[in-house]
Design brief:
With about 450 residues, this protein is mainly alpha-helical. It has 22 helices and two strands. The longest helix is centred in the middle third of the chain and has 32 residues. α5 packs antiparallel against α8. It has a two-stranded parallel sheet. It is globular and about 65 Å long.
Length: about 450
Amino acid sequence: MSAAPVAAAPPSRTAPAPVPRAASAPTATDPALVRRAVKAAALGNAMEWFDFGVYSYIAVTLGKVFFPSGNPTAQLLSTFGAFAAAFLVRPLGGMVFGPLGDRVGRQKVLAVTMIMMAAGTFAIGLIPSYATIGVWAPVLLLAARLVQGFSTGGEYAGASTFIAEYAPDKRRGFLGSWLEFGTLAGYIGGAGLVTLMTALLSDGDLMSWGWRIPFLIAGPMGIVGLYLRMRLEETPAFAAEVAKAETARPKVPLREMVTGQWRALLLCVGLVLVFNVTDYMLLSYMPSYLTSELEYDETHGLLVVLGVMALMMVVQPFAGALTDRVGRRPVIAAGCAGFLLLSVPALLLIREGSLLAVALGMGALGMLLVCFTASMPSALPALFPTRVRYGSLSIGFNVSVSLFGGTTPLVVTALIGATGDMMMPAYYMMAAAVVGGVAVWFMTESAGRPLPGSAPAVEGR
C-alpha cells in the first residue's frame, strides 16, 4: 500500500503526498464539464436523501400502516428496524458496485445505482397496507428497503469519487461540498413535503393514501437523474488509468482493496462514523425524538428541523471553500471538538421545549455537522489511490454507515427505552466525536494536493 493517504507519525501528516512520476503531467479541467458532473452526482445524492427524509419524517405513520396495531413505541421500533435493515446490505452493494466502478468506470455504475434507487423508493409507494395484505406488507417494505440499501452501497462513494476526480486540486473542497448540498436539498424536499401533507391532510387521509405521494415522486426524479448521468464522460483520472493498460482494465482483487489499504480503511471508518452518527442523529432521528419522546408538537418540530437544514445549505458551499484554504483536518477537528463539548448543552436546550430553545439547540448541532458535510466528500476519496478508490471507499464507507450511522435511530431509541435516560442522543454523539477525533489526528492533509495516483489537476479556461 502507498503511504501517501496515511501518516505513521504527526510530522508526516502535513507532508505533501507523493505524486507518481507517470502521473506528474498536470491535467486541465473543463469548467463546464465539472459543473455537469457536480450536478449529476448531487442529484443522485438528493434522491437518496429525499427518500431518507420522507421515511424518517413519516416514520410514525409508516409504523401504523405497515405493522400491527398496539404499542406505538413497538411500531416505531419496527419502522426504524426496516430503515436500519437497508444499511445491513449496503456493504454488499459496496463490494459489488465499488470494484465494478474501478473496472468498468464510475459513470456506468452510477447510472445503474440511480435506476435501482428510484425503483426501490417508487415501489414503497405501491405496497398495500398491513390491514389489506397482512404480514406481506412489512415483508414487501423490507424487500424494497433492501433494494435501496444495495444500490446506495455504490452511490455515495461513487458520487464523491466522481466529483473529486473531476475537480481541480485547489477547488476540490468547494466542489465536493455540493454533493452534501444535494443531500440537504433532498432531505428538505422530502421532509418539507411530509410537513405540508401533515398540515393539510387529515390523519385518515394521510394514513389511507397521502403517505404514498412522496415515494411515488421518486420515479420521475430517477428518470431525470439517469438522463444527466448518461450524458457524462468518464473522469480524467479513470481515463488515465485505462490509458495505462494495454488491454482491458485488470480486475483488482477484493483482498487488495481491503488488506492492501487497511490503514486508510480504518481512517475512513472512523471519519465516516462521526460524520454519519451525527448526521443521522440530527436529520433522521431528531424529528421522531421531538414527537415520540418529548411529545413536542409534530408540525413545529418538523419546521424547526427544516429551518436548520436550510441554514446548513446556505453555509455549506462557504464551508467547503474554507476547507480549500485552511485544510480538511482543521475543519473536521473543529466539528469533533464541538460535538464533544456542546452535545449535552444543545440537547438540554432542545429538551427545554420552547420553540426558541429547540431552534437554538438544533441550530448549534447543524452548524457543527456542516464541518463534516463540507469536508468529507473531498477528504474521503483522497485516502485511496485511483486504481482502488471507488472500491476501497465503497467498502469502508458502507461498513461504517451500516454498523454505526444507519442504526443510530434504532440504537438510540432502544437505549432510551432500556435506561429511561433522555440524554442518550448526546452521549452517543460525544462517543462518535471521540472516534472521529482519533481518526482526524492520523489523517493526512489533502487540501490543494493531487489525489493519490492521479496527475495534478488545474482549472482550465
